[in-house]
What does this fold into?
Amino acid sequence: MNVYHGLAQGARPCRRCTSTHANLTLKMDDGTGATGTIDPEAKTPADSLPEPPLVISQDDYVDARSKSFGEPALHRQPRATPKQIAARARAQCVKDQATAEHRERLRDEYAAKVASGEIRPPTRHERLIATARGHEDNESVQAARRLLARDGVDWRETPVEQS
It folds into this structure.
């Protein structure tokens, strides 16, 4: 079946090509001679479905949107004077405090997005499936696999939404 579309008066951009159309006239070469017009702006049932919420844990949300804290062994500087060590420690403390405040704001933002339905935390099985896909020598991976087997969930076949 061949489908052709033609340019009409009152042109506007077409979703499928670079030309402009007022409406799209379909001419089908399937032997039936059927023709018709469709509105490219019309909503289809698939367009009207809401998007599913993003599945992400609070820790993953905060970690993805902030930087980590400073060097914990800042006091171990063999060639620095005590005055230099103290100055660097004070500067790092200020940076760490700003990071902690930023992370707290991100936690509040996460809670607001969960309340609005934009994000949802992963379910227990989703968390266990993500853990079960780790290295088989880890005890936590083995425990997650045992729990999923007990609940009758196959961790190999179950898709997990990525954040």
Observations:
- The chain has four helices and seven strands.
- Strands lie at 3-4, 12-13, 20-21, 24-28, 35-38, 54-55, 119-120.
- Confidence is low (pLDDT under 50) at residues 1-11, 22-29.
